[in-house]
Amino acid sequence: MRKVAFGPGTVVKSDDGTFELLNHYTIEGIPNWQMRDQSTGILCHRPEAEIRAAYDVGVATFDSRLEPETPEERKRRRKRHGVPLSDLSEKKRRRVAYRKEVIREVEKRLAPGTVHAVVGWVERGGKSRPVTNLDRLCAELGRELGQKHYGKPAPCSAASYARWAALYAEHEDSRDLQGNFDKRGRKAKVDPLVSDAIKRVMARLLEAAKYRKPVGRRPVLSMAQIMTASLDEVKIERKRHPDRPLVLPDRSTFYVYYNRFPAELRSIARHGATKSRMLHRRPGDRDAPEAALSHLMFDETRLPFFVVHETLGIPLGRPWLAILVDVFSNAIVGFYIGFEPPGDLVIAATIRHACLMKSYVAQDYPDIVNPYLCGGVGRFFTFDNSLQAHGNSILQITADLDVQYDFTPPRSPWVKGEVEGAFAVAAQTFLQEMPGYVLSRDLHIDNHDYDPTQHAVIGLRHLMWLWHHWLLGVYHPNAPRNGTRLSPNQRWLDGTRIVKPCFLERGTDLDFMFGIVREGRRLDNRGVVYEQIYYYSDGIDILRRRRGASIRVKVKVNPINLARIHVWDPDEEIWIPAFARDRSYADGLDLHTHTLYRRHTDRLSGRDDLEGWIESRAHLHGLIDRALPDALGIQIQAKIARSMGMGSDRMYAELDPLGRRPGSPTPLLGPTGRPLAIEGPPADRGAGLAVGVGPAMTETAAAPRQVARRARAIPVFSTDHSLG
């Protein structure tokens, strides 16, 4: 490596400029250096301690050259910067050691003034030429040191010594003696016009390949396409230069040029942008969040097991699980479990659950000792690059919450490693132990031995009870087995000690914040109408008296529960709640189910009123009640579950500001509109495999059956996977 003396004449290069050290003196007992700016020539002074500190942290570099470097020298020195002599090849290291020892031996053996002394004469080319003291010594050193370093005599002349000494004296850098024999004998056999045309074509096609998708296993860009486009480019050059024979090289030369482009561009041309981004991904080195709720990641997946209907014992399909994971603590702040497909409703339900205080756990699950600590409004969200995340609903919700958000690149799960890791832990420690778990095809288990559609025995409320037990009793309070990290609960308490979680001013604001806005709804003496449901309240009556008897208003509706909407008051700039006039029908009704009732009413009688909806609901529930015992497909059964509004969003739609239910939990309704009645399992079944063993099932278990009809027996779970 180069060595530079720190003293007068040393050049200091930093971001401020290039300075030459002139004089060293003391100002009020503090050592300083007088410096000259190389660009302006202005003299200045700087404390010596500041220069030393800048050198230690790498901000300043030392040099011994005053004249500016040429672009070639600057490029050569930048390329060799930080490369020690030991990193060179053995051949180059041997050459450097030989030449450096020649320089040292000449300086040691020849006294000053005796270098060019003539010691003899020799005949060369018919002429008598003198032999200097340096010539004689270089010949001896070539035989002596060549045998030492190469195992044979090496050529060494006075001219070679002078060239080596000049290179070494310029910067006193041993790497200057390595020589450059790598390109010896190489001559360009391809016309420069042809090679430039090929490189232009390759650069253009590689850039265009970034925006193309691979079809099957075929590459995005092939060498045949490059050669064809290069031929067209060369034909244009032939017309411009008719006097030059421009010929395309062979295929191997094309690969020589092609391999000089970055490997990432070549990978995109071979596999496409998505797989190339995965191959060249980097570790998650983003800035770590400073506190809890600073960064929340969202993801959703379909659970690998089937949920059964609690009354009829029919598998309803595979539910969806969506979670919001706090990056700081790895805690699951909010979740959604239900049969709604991925959409803005699922995202809104998950964010709404994350904003609650979660005190419903102590009310609905009294056997859970650990509280649900995590909750609050996040300060930054990361969503998948999906259509529902790009919708107006997410833009509206994040704007109302005053938070920022971004998206992950498509098919790049490593970018959101925290939420993917939470799913992996849930799959290994919770989901695989569930009855009805869908086994992997890699296990090659016959469907006759284990069919999840026949052996599923988990009801939705039972699933919710087990999920809360695992989340609050296993995942949150326990630290990972590998590493020294704290548990999610401990990290959450550490992350909220300085920056406290923030909640909305009123918990009821969540009802209309996660709603949909509709313009131009008429408000008159009947009330405001939305989806043919009429709403009214005292606040709406005051609005009519102030604004007019019949006006057009803007409403916001929570699609999870149509029992209440909000009407915008432009004068006061507030949302006024309005309640459904037919609360018995609209209470707990979601928009999807109401739309199904209206469509079925039109098919039955062509009506669109409350009486028709009630008849349609009874008729649909009767169809479902008669159809569920039949052998229906899982897709149809999942649609039935969705039409009945099964999901955690509906269970927690009526929570108060503290996250508690205003009364006793509403029992899950069966297909006939009655509360679900869970009968006790037969005596020969295992107690741990029965539906309704959780505390949330005790109230529904006591509900009387209103239809005297024998329900289908719940099948017995027969597999090695169990609840433990």
Task: Detail the topology: elements first, then pairings.
Blueprint: E1 11-14, E2 17-27, E3 30-37, E4 43-47, H1 48-56, E5 61-63, H2 71-80, H3 90-109, E6 118-124, E7 127-132, H4 133-149, H5 158-171, H6 192-208, H7 223-240, H8 251-258, H9 263-271, H10 273-279, E8 296-302, E9 307-308, E10 315-317, E11 320-326, E12 332-338, H11 344-354, H12 360-364, E13 380-383, H13 392-401, E14 404-407, H14 417-429, H15 452-455, H16 460-475, H17 488-498, H18 509-513, E15 516-524, E16 527-530, E17 533-536, H19 538-547, E18 551-557, E19 564-569, E20 574-580, H20 583-586, H21 591-604, H22 610-627, H23 634-643, H24 648-651, H25 698-701
Parallel strand pairs: 8-13, 13-14
Antiparallel strand pairs: 1-2, 1-5, 2-3, 3-4, 6-7, 8-11, 9-10, 11-12, 15-16, 15-18, 16-17, 17-20, 18-19, 19-20
Give structural notes.
The chain is α+β, with helices and mostly antiparallel strands and 724 residues long. It is built from 25 helices and 20 strands. The strands form five sheets. Strands 15-16-17-20-19-18 form a six-stranded antiparallel barrel. A hairpin with a 2-residue loop joins strand 15 and strand 16. The radius of gyration is 40 Å and the shape is elongated.
